Automatic annotation (TrEMBL):
Domain EAL residues, every copy: 1-251
Organism classification: Bacteria, Pseudomonadati, Pseudomonadota, Alphaproteobacteria, Acetobacterales
Keywords of this entry: Membrane, Transmembrane, Transmembrane helix
From-to range in the entire protein, with total length: 513 to 763 of 786
Domain of life: Bacteria
Name by which UniProt lists this protein: EAL domain-containing protein
Organism per entry: Acetobacter garciniae
Length: 251
């Protein structure tokens, strides 16, 4: 409850909340295809609070729509200025679905910032599909109908189901970093990465290997046929130019 009150306060004052970005790179050319927006929070007494800690609090307390709006608007606004024309990928929580508010929030953010819809990617985990699957699919479909791309995040963890891939035309599958990192030493994990990469090719969907930290990881996921890569080997999530000096100060 105390963290919830602090987060509510931060959202109200727009204080200490930042969006960091991490590049997603084409494996064959090295070009930056997209940047994933990852929210960060600095609290004056508590220091940096991990999103692993405060995103669930936001989800449980009804603050997630407001937090989601903050990230979405910042991400679209900043992506408009990217000279390389890369897409911006925004994570969306299961709890942002269901009331139809997500679709209007996305439309509003695109309209207000002027970001072309095809430069926005929404990342959803399969957990989001478990609730009212038909309703969630309908919301994803309307996003896609106006040109926003939809990625399936953390594939391989949780309730991965081939039925989801058949039921909905995802534009991208993101293979969870745990598989990627283990693939170097464990043939079974390499087999999973290869199977998903093959599936992606057959479905005409790009596959992103997440959590690529070393050259060995990169060599392995290239071998297994992934089309894009993301991870510390390329860059950690970093603040935008404008926030960088502020973040430096806080660190
Ligand atoms: O960046 P990091 O590894 O610390 O993120 C931890 C978790 O928080 C990840 O699962 C990530 O998807 C989630 N996360 C980061 N930013 C956002 C956001 O803006 N919205 C939502 N819903 N989740 C986010
Ligand atoms: O759950 P999601 O995939 O949206 O979140 C991505 C998370 O992975 C973020 O918290 C991000 O900071 C983290 N991340 C990004 N690259 C790497 C990496 O190379 N290694 C590890 N361990 N985590 C990473
Ligand atoms: Mn993600
Ligand atoms: Na992920």
């Amino acid at each position: 409850v105390r963290l919830e009150a602090k987060l509510r306060d931060a959202l109200q004052k727009r204080e200490g909340l930042f969006v960091f970005y991490q590049p997603i790179v084409a494996i064959d050319t090295g070009a930056v295809i997209a940047r994933e927006a990852l929210v960060r929070w600095y609290h004056p007494q508590r220091g940096w609070v991990s999103p692993g800690e405060f995103v669930p609090v936001a989800e449980q307390s009804g603050l997630i729509d407001e937090l989601g709006d903050f990230v979405l608007n910042a991400a679209c606004r900043e992506a408009v200025g990217w000279a390389d024309g890369a897409r911006v990928a925004v994570n969306v929580s299961a709890s942002q679905f269901g009331e139809g508010t997500l679709v209007s929030a996305v439309q509003r953010a695109l309209a207000e910032t002027g970001l072309p819809p095809d430069r926005l990617e929404v990342e959803v985990t399969e957990t989001a599909l478990l609730g009212d699957e038909q309703d969630v699919m309908a919301e994803l479909r309307s996003l896609r109908a106006f040109g926003v791309r939809v990625a399936l995040d953390d594939f391989g963890t949780g309730y991965s189901s081939l039925a989801h891939l058949r039921a909905f035309p995802f534009d991208k599958i993101k293979i969870d970093g745990t598989f990627v990192r283990d693939a170097v030493e464990r043939p079974d994990c390499a087999a999973v990465v290869q199977a998903v990469a093959t599936l992606g090719r057959r479905l005409g969907v790009s596959t992103v290997a997440e959590g690529v930290e070393t050259q060995a990881h990169l060599d392995r996921v290239r071998e297994e046929g992934c089309s894009e890569v993301q991870g510390y080997l390329f860059s950690r999530p970093l603040p935008n130019e404008h926030d960088a000096p502020i973040v430096e100060e806080l660190n």
